Amino acid sequence: MRTSVLLAWLLVFFSAALGATALDWKQEPGDRVAPLAVSTAGKTGFTLMDAAALGIEFTNALSPQRVVMFQNLMNGSGLAAADVDRDGLVDLYFCHKQEGNQLYRNLGGGRFTNVTAQAGVACANQTSVGAVFGDLNGDGAADLIVSGFGGPNVVLLNDGRGRFTDVSASAGISGKSGYTSMALSDVDGDADLDLYLCNFGAQAILRDGGIVSTRMINGQLQITGRNAN
Question: What is the pTM of this model?
Fold first, then answer.
């Protein structure tokens, strides 16, 4: 089964993302911000862009066998956007549920190029569902977290030039649950980003044929096995 990627860009509000206007970034503690110029001409709304013309050749293709085994994989995968190489242009990261993920560097002028191999962010050995960018170590660069359905979750630190190092082993978010979407925020005000990680419940895994078992613990039925939550 193939799910086509349709890219719709809000040209009025995100013209800077396509390289029409350079952004004036201001550094703040643990982050940086830039105002977006809103055009007073024309009309607001979305314009559908041609993916081939943009240089984005990504399709989240799933084999029929994989769809039959895990039907919830048809729910789609994540997309994350950030300026990974700090050139003032927003780059795009696509998650894939059967093959490697892809990172596209924004060249400006509405053109992108695939830099996955150079960046080291393919995460080819997992079923990638969600992705989120954020400055995890306070160096001003956009780091990346990728969730995997059934694990693993991958944490990648950005060197500031768009090249990433896998630090998953020491990150403390490993697991084998049905991880999906994520959100980053400083929930306790200590200037560090905290992570909220969603996952499918045990019943959802059971419906999709996950390898689990049950047993009675203190009079209650408990789900056990490698896919148990």
Answer: 0.70
